[in-house]
Amino acid sequence: MKHVARSSSSASPIRPLRIAIFGFGTVGSSVARILTEARPEGLELTHIFNRNIDRKRADWVDASVLWSENANEILSAGVDVIVELAGGLEPAGLWIRRALEAGKSVVTANKKLIAYHGVELELLAAEKGGHIKYGAAVAGGIPVIPGLEQGLAGDKIERIEGILNGTCNFILNKMETGAEFETVLAEAQMLGTAEADPTEDVGGFDARAKLSILMRLAMRVHVNPDEIIPRPITEVAAIDFSYARDLGCTIRQISRAERVGGHIAASVGPTLVPLTSPIAWARGTANMVVVNGHYGGEVVFSGHGAGGQPTAVAVVSDLIALARGSRRIEIPSEQVTIGTESEVAHYIRFRVKDEPGIVAEIAGALAKEKININAIVQKPGFPQDDLPFVVTVEPCKSSALKRALDAIRKRDFNVADPLDLQMLP
Amino acid sequence: MKHVARSSSSASPIRPLRIAIFGFGTVGSSVARILTEARPEGLELTHIFNRNIDRKRADWVDASVLWSENANEILSAGVDVIVELAGGLEPAGLWIRRALEAGKSVVTANKKLIAYHGVELELLAAEKGGHIKYGAAVAGGIPVIPGLEQGLAGDKIERIEGILNGTCNFILNKMETGAEFETVLAEAQMLGTAEADPTEDVGGFDARAKLSILMRLAMRVHVNPDEIIPRPITEVAAIDFSYARDLGCTIRQISRAERVGGHIAASVGPTLVPLTSPIAWARGTANMVVVNGHYGGEVVFSGHGAGGQPTAVAVVSDLIALARGSRRIEIPSEQVTIGTESEVAHYIRFRVKDEPGIVAEIAGALAKEKININAIVQKPGFPQDDLPFVVTVEPCKSSALKRALDAIRKRDFNVADPLDLQMLP
User: Fold this and answer.
1) Could you identify which of A165, A166, A248, B322 might form a hypothetical disulfide with A207, taking C-beta atoms 3.0 to 4.6 angstroms apart as the criterion?
2) What is the spatial distance between Cα A212 and Cα A210, in angstroms, rounded to a whole number?
């Protein structure tokens, strides 16, 4: 009766887990702060690694903690868990592999590394007897990863929709009130909410890494994040928010994965969201994940997706799980290819030099592909030589819509490329 | 290095966990359905107990499953886990104690039993080497219990606010559009959303049991649920929704616990909620829990709080955790007494026989207790001999407000007892 032996009473560890923090930035110092202030049972901060360590030293950290600029020194020391908070593929990956090779456990917030190499690192951990935990890698302070691993393990998740990037949500929320992208980006950069090079965030690369991690945990599929082609939010203009409002919607960066027939569709990009949908509620830099299960229906998680302290809570929670003797959760997952075909409603915004017959031509091109128009909206007050107007279409095959738009694109009434966005129901 | 031994690689159990379901109602049959259809690894349904078993037998259940009306027979059989879904204190408590005494594990959705006897049952399980898990006891399909146990373990939770009773939420949502309580209750009873005797739900007893479970997991305090005096939603009339809307609010049954200075305040009852607050979003029978952590800030969980399938997902997730060799999470908790003093804003609705000087008298009684009035709202169109109007007051000590209201109550301009409701900020 092996399971009986495994479920035997847990006892406190003989000595606490010795913890080394790699990366003493916003999150790393918040982790150290919680470990120092709250002193969760079974955890002892023993080492801190950072470059230019003298600039980083903090007097509120216990004097017994060893500060070092030498990663190898700490990796060779008698620590039990490496908390990796440096981010990026390397050298973080190198440190993590070395730690796992030595049978140590790892807690990380590194979404990129986990999205690309998570499966391989979990196998390595399993082989060497350690653990790798990454509850902080997606939606920092929101316990969506433990929620999926534990509380929804009994369901079959059919769809995930999320606001996974706080920077994009901040920018799009501000654009709702009429501001243009560049103005809001500059403000976000001044506030520290956006990076100097915002490509990872606004381009959707950060969100797709997180989406692929959630897909693995929720849908048990293993995808190469590069297969999800993100749409940047830079494509959206203030006028689109105005038209979206007329349609009872707003615009959010949505990361979405869904089982459609035998395959998985996944997308990241600006998307029209009905104002009545929970996903429209996320304000400021908030994150939100909506999970739809075959048995349990819709579950919504929301909160602070990033920031030092919320992310640190997720890291410390993972450390507490290790101290409690958390078992590895082996998530069986099959490698799948992302389907390029989906079937959703679309918002298409044209900018044209006005002349008779444009609507008829557009309607004709859509009809040729058997795509039904849902609404045509044109606001007054725009110049005749650069007139924005919107056509929404009922759910249709993305390949058919692409053919229709390619045909429309060729017509010289276009002043700019038509913008098409998915619409959530 | 004890923790290293504990974190050694997990292997699949040699044989699956043998599971007995006690209570084949809506939730029990949904659990059987998931175990039969999805066949999660490591779980085998072997026994089903119910009264009048012949009425219950379902042909989609594996022929190998033993159906019985004899609880003792199943408790003596070689099952590993009892899934208790009968509810109520007895005989559920008796079955669970017998199973735990025998070293078996228990998964239950029984909020009442866990609220009153959870600590004792956990101790018994620990002593005998079994587990007791109750992720389905609060907010059924929403993984708030694993979220608190795992994902927020690293935080210090300072406040919980929740919509924990779907029946009350359904009724109050309907009352928003002008219907009176009795009409909506009758509709809810017809739909099966409310029981024939709705006292447990509308009286707040169901919600206070759930709140006390959440308080233990989130705030690490152990309270006697009877110390939380619930306010029934029956006190609220359609006119209160109308006044609430004028104040930018709606009314929800809110269960709330908060650390205030050295003590814990807890309440359950109809409460004014700003329309801009996430807690106003819960529609229909939805549940919602908002947790506020010292480090991580606000986290919101929402979804289906009840219903066969969502609750069954929570039960099956607990079973999967047992099959994975889940460790017991020992939540240290101190027994505390609920404080009666809180300091929140209040909505007070009077019904008076109009005469000069009433507002002056009320204002005087409040001023005597140093309570500041925030707003006075009186809608036109009501009869002079039964005139409803509302006074809202700024956050004040509940004892001071009680003294002021006791003084006002004595005045014979009152046609009905003043209704005072807490207001969330």
Assistant:
1) A165
2) 5
- Considering only the top CATH level, what class is B343-423? alpha beta
In chain A, count of helices (H) and strands (E)? 15, 18
DSSP secondary structure letter of residue A227: G
Q: A327, B330: Cβ pair inside 8 Å?
A: no
Confidence class of residue A334 from pLDDT cuts 50, 70 and 90?
A: confident
Closest C-alpha among A162, A171, A142 to residue A254 = A162
Burial (CB count within 10 angstroms: exposed 0-12, middle 13-18, buried 19+), residue A352: buried
- Cβ neighbour number for residue A105 with a 10 Å cutoff: 28
Query: What pLDDT shows up at residue A169?
Result: 94
Asked whether the beta carbons of B92 and B110 are under 8 A apart, the reply is yes
Q: Cα dist. A306→A188, A288, A302, A310 in Å?
A: 14, 11, 12, 6
Minimal CA separation from A312 to chain B, in Å: 8
CA distances from B367 to B362, B397, B407 (A): 9, 13, 12
- SS3 for B388? strand
Q: Are the CB atoms for B105 and B121 separated by under 8 Å?
A: no
Q: How many CA atoms lie within 13 A of A195 on its CB side?
A: 10
Tens digit of each residue's pLDDT (9 = 90 or more) over B48-73: 999 988 888 899 999 999 999 999 99
- For residue range B259-274, list pLDDT tens digits in order: 887 789 999 999 999 9
Report the C-alpha gap between B371 and A2 in whole angstroms.
Answer: 64
Nearest Cα of chain A lies from the Cα of B165 at a distance, in angstroms, of 16
CA distances from B300 to A51, A166, B303, B420 (A): 37, 16, 10, 27
**pLDDT computed for residue B278 by the predictor:** 84
Please give the CATH architecture assigned to the domain spanning B16-133: 3-Layer(aba) Sandwich (3.40)
- In this structure, whether the domain defined by A2-133 belongs to CATH 3.30.43.10 is answered with no
Q: Is the pLDDT confidence value at A281 over 60? A: yes
- Say yes or no: A8 contacts chain B, CB-CB below 8 A: yes
Q: Is A322 on the interface with B (CB under 8 A)?
A: yes
Q: How would you label B313-322 residue by residue, b for 16+ Cβ within 10 Å and e otherwise?
A: bbbbbbbbbb
Q: What pTM was computed for the model?
A: 0.91
Look at residue A325 and give its three-state secondary structure: coil
Element containing residue A175 per DSSP (H, E) = helix A166-175
Q: Is the pLDDT of residue B328 over 80?
A: no
| Interchain pair A129, B8: CB under 8 A | yes
- A9 — contact with chain B (CB < 8 Å)? yes
- DSSP 8-state assignment for residue B353: -
In the numeric block, the tokens 């048990």 are attached to A220
- pLDDT computed for residue B56 by the predictor: 86
Query: What's the gap between Cα A164 and its chain centre?
Result: 4
In angstroms, rounded to a whole number, what is the distance separating the alpha carbons of residues A363 and A376? 10
CATH topology (fold) of A144-305: Dihydrodipicolinate Reductase; domain 2 (3.30.360)
Minimal CA separation from A83 to chain B, in Å: 14
B contact residues 79-98, partner A, Cβ 8 Å cutoff? 80
| B327, B330, B331: best to mutate for the A interface, most A CBs within 10 A | B327
Beta bridge partners, A265, equal A258, A339
Q: Which ipTM did the prediction report?
A: 0.89
Say how far apart CA B171 and CA B179 lie, in whole Å: 9
Q: What is the pLDDT of residues A137-147, one digit of tens each?
A: 999 889 999 89
Q: For chain A, what are the domain ranges?
A: 2-133, 144-305, 343-423
Cβ-Cβ contacts under 8 Å between A and B: the total is 243
> Which residues of chain A lie closer than 8 angstroms to B41, CB-CB?
332
- Using CB atoms and an 8 Å cut-off, which of residues 288-317 of chain B contact chain A? 293, 295-304, 309-310, 312-317
Q: List active site positions of B.
A: 210
Instruction: Name the minimum distance, in Å, from the CA of B128 to any CA of chain A.
Output: 8
